[in-house]
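for the writeup, i need someone to sanity check this before i put it in the appendix. the sequnce is what the collaborator sent (i think, or maybe the updated version? ugh). structure was predicted straight from it, no edits. if anything looks off just tell me and ill rerun, i have time this weekend
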Amino acid sequence: MAKLKAFKGLRPPKEIVKDLASKPYDVLNSKEAREEAKGNPYSLLHIIKPEIDLPEDVNLYSQEVYDKAKENFEKFKEKGWLKKDDKDHLYIYAQTMWGKTQYGIVGCAHIDDYFNNVIKKHELTRPDKEEDRMKHVRITNANMEPVFFSYPANEKLDNLIKNYADSNEPVYDFTADDGVGHHFWVIEDENLTKKIIDIFDKMPSLYVADGHHRTAAAALVGKEKREANPNHTGDEEYNYFLAVNFPDNQLTIIDYNRVVKDLNGLTEEEFLNNLKENFEIEEIGEKEYKPSKLHEFSMYLNGKWYKLTAKEGTYDDNDPIGVLDVTILTNKVLQPILGIDDLRRSKRIDFVGGIRGLGELKKRVDSGEMKVAFALYPVTMKQLIDIADSGNIMPPKTTWFEPKLRSGLVVHELE
């Protein structure tokens, strides 16, 4: 059963929270992070993307970068930009986007739940990315950013959270520059905290929605600390890591699209002819076309949009992996036609979150950087949960959740 723990969070003063709260570390590259944090000393990007305070040619994985993260974290605490609560709390974090608000519970998950598969995953992690986040956790001795979990909607729990939020003023309430509203409550009611923890204790599973590398890193560092402590009791903070838990029926997954650098030596005519084996192809023209249902794709090639409809036999609607459009695209196009065998490591393919719109796909092809783009119909939460429950793994870059969590509203220290 899922463990949830209240903790003494490190939080910013209300006056600077909008400036301090930042996008997650993996949503921005270094150049974008520098621009985002320009002229803003409060931005958490100074800690989670510390290379922005070093020369632009710095090796992102050098010790100098991690040392700068620690230095900046200590500075934030010394200046009072992050202050620790005086007692353990759970917190509520709500986000408003596109006229819809989703309510999450912020607390600490247990590292054993990760290793025992109570916390279920749907993506593989890369060892190099795990080690990067592990170094960051080790040197700061903190979970600077929460991971993003989901749980099967529980009416009693969701009503408790919503009623508390409706009856109490949030401690933080702001709209970020991208138009997303962020609302945050500190739960002061100890009885409510106990009720929430008890409900989680009856949940058989939690699901990683976003942040597989952060989850793995947090759990592995906790395990390291446990094994290095001869006086380990099980109550130490390093046994837990920071998570926001949302009900599955409130979440929105949008499309996660693909762009490819070349046609693997084929002419455009040869490429289109190869596609006809497994797809019905309709030329749309210059007008952007977005897939409207499962097993339908849009493709942008040489200034034109195409509608691709997968033929029967290219998918298996009774198989949690075989039903996915990313599986169809991988098995019928990317691997056999375009020769991309390892989506996780190939330099010939890139992935574009649907929040950037179809215009981003067109832009990258028209610029000559890429040759062809594919837009997919979004995966559903049911598909994600079915895959995680079956012990299967989704192909890389399958899900893109919006809105993204803001980092810095609360931090969890491991001591």
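The two ends are 25 Å apart (CA to CA). Residues 212-228 form the longest helix (17 residues).
thx in advance!!
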